[in-house]
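User: Modeling request: complex.
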Amino acid sequence: MSTITDLKYLKIVLETALLTSAEALSVSALKKLFTEDVKAALINDLLAEIQQDWRGRGIELVKLASGWRFRARAEFTPYLARLTPEKPPRYSRAVMETLAIVAYRQPVTRGDIEAIRGVSVSTSVMQTLLERGWVEVIGHKDVPGRPGLYATTHKFLDDLGLVSLRDLPPLADLGTLVLPEVQPESVGETDAVPLDDEADNVIEQER
Amino acid sequence: MSTITDLKYLKIVLETALLTSAEALSVSALKKLFTEDVKAALINDLLAEIQQDWRGRGIELVKLASGWRFRARAEFTPYLARLTPEKPPRYSRAVMETLAIVAYRQPVTRGDIEAIRGVSVSTSVMQTLLERGWVEVIGHKDVPGRPGLYATTHKFLDDLGLVSLRDLPPLADLGTLVLPEVQPESVGETDAVPLDDEADNVIEQER
Amino acid sequence: MSNEFLLTSPELPSGVPIAHVFGQPVLEVPQDLFIPPDALQVILESFEGPLDLLLYLIRKQNLNVLDIPMAPITAQYMAYIDAMRREQFELAAEYLLMAALLIEIKSRLLLPRPPKDEEGEPDDPRAELVRRLLEYEQMKLAALELDKMPQADRDFAWLAVLIEQVAEERLPEVCAVDLRQAWLAILSRARNTRHHKVEKDELSVRAQMTWILRYLEGREYVAFEELFDLTLGVPHLVVNFIAVLELVKEGLVKVSQDAAYQPIYVRLALV
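Assistant: Request completed. Predicted assembly structure:
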C-alpha cells in the first residue's frame, strides 16, 4: 500500500474525506486527516487539482464560507429531483451527541460536554443548536473564563413533543448494551482522562 | 448541451444520482431519473462501467439489499475517523446475540429468542435494534398474547454491505462445533442432535 | 475483538486475564470455591446466562458436549450458584431453573434406563439440554461473526455530497429516541461507562437546576422560600432542595444567611 508521502494517495484521502463529509471542511480540518504535518499550501494545491479533475462531471468541489465541499452541479438537479422524495435531513452525530448531553446533564458548560464526549465540540455544533432555538445559555459558571451554561429550551420540548424533561427516554440500563470502544494504543494508561490530545488543545484555547 | 441519447451523459447522470443520494438506489429508482424509457439492462451495464471506473480510488460503488450506493473503502476509515470520532456504538454480546438470532432464525418472537439464549431479553435490547433500524416487527404470531414477530430490515443488510440474507456468514455446523479435539467413539450418539439439517432449512425458507 | 467476547470464548488463550480483582489478574475461573466476592460479580456479569456458563464449564475442560458427564458438571455448576447466592448476588431466576434441570437430568440418569422408543433409540435425558447448548453456541458464534463484519459508519462511511436545495430549507427532524441512540455512542466511547449513567431521578434534579438558574437570572437576591412552591407536593420539594444543593456544590449559586434564624438568600454565583 502507498504511504502518505505518496502525493497521489494523499490526494485520494482528501477526496474521500470531502465526498463523505456531511459538512464543509476547512483546510485546517483537512490537515487533521493526517498524523504527519501536511502543509496548508500543499493541501490547497491538491484541492485545486481535485477541483480540476471533476471538471465536466456531475458534482463539483466548491469553496464555501466554512470550507470545501462537493455538491451536485445545478445542471443536474432537475434529474435528481425526479428521484424518490427526499428524506428530511439529519443532524450529524456530533450535533446529536451534544444535544443529548445538554438535555440529560443540564446545565452544562462546553467543557463538561467535551469531557463527556471525549472529543472537542466545534463552534458550529453549538451554533446549530442555538440557532435552532433548542439550546440556550442560561448563565455563566464562576470559574476562570466564565464559560456559559447551556440548557434546553421550551421550544426543544415542544418540537420533540415532550411535556417535560422527565419524558425523555430513561438511560438507566444502557451500559449493558454497548462495549467500550477498542483503543489499542492506550494500553496501561486506562485511568487517564478520556480526552485525546487534540481535544485538550481545543479546550485549553477556549479557556 | 448533450441529449439523453448520449450514453456518456446518461452515465454522468447516473453517477451523479448515486454520488448525491443519501440511500441506496435500485435500478427501478434509477430509471425514474429519466423521462425517457431507459432499459434496465442498459442501466445495469452503465452501473458496471461506473463500478469499473472507480477501481483503485477512495470510494467504491457497491450493490446492497436495497440497491446501489457509493461508500468509502474501508481502507480509508482510519483517516476519516480523525475528522469524525463519533461513530455508532459497539454493541454488547446481549445485543449482538439477539441480532444474530433474529437474522438467522427470522421471523422470531421474543420468546423464541429467550428460549435460545436461555435468559430473558430486556426491552432495551430489542429497542436498541429497532431504533437502529436493523430489526422490525413484521407481524404477530397467532398464539395467546399475539407476540410480535421480529425480522431484520433492508437497512441491516445495507449497513453490513450485504445483498441478501444468503450473504450472512454461514452458521457453524453443529456437527463440527461439538467434536472435541480428542474424539470419539461415541459417533453413534450424534443422531441425538439432528440440528444441522434444521438450520439449513431455516435459511432455505428465506429464499 | 472485544474483551468481553474474549471472556467466554472457547479458544481463550492462556495468560489472558478474564478479570482483575484488587489489581491482580484472574487468569481463569477458579475451580475451587475460593472466589473473591468481587471476582464472582465480574464472572457472573461476563456470562450471558446459564447456557453460557455451562458451555464455558464444558469447553474449558474439553468435554464432549454430546456426552456430558452430568455428575461433575452439575457439581461445578452448583458450586458457582451456591457461591453467588452466599454472596447474595441477585441471581437471575434462569440460573436456578438450570440448576434444577441439571439435578433432574442427573437423577434420571441414575434410574434404570426406560424402554427404548419406537425407533429403538435410547432416550437420553440429556438430549434436550445438549440441543439447547449447541443451538445457543451456534448463535453465540454467529454473533461474533456478525460483529466482525464491516458496519456502516463504524467501519466505512457513506457518501454525503450536497444537493443545493432550491425549495425552502428543511430542518432536520429529531425525536426523543434519537437522543437515547446518541447517548449509546457516547457510552461506548467513554472508558468508564458507569460514570455517565443518568437515572431518571437525577434527570429531574438537573431539570430543576435549570429552572432555578433561569429564575434567578436578572434577580439579585431571592429568598430561599421563594424557590419552593408548596403546592407541588413533597417529591417536588425534595427534588428542588437537592437541586439547590447541587447548584451550590457546582459553584453555580451562592446561598447566604446573615445570622441564625435570619432569612436565607440565594443568588447566582456570577451576575
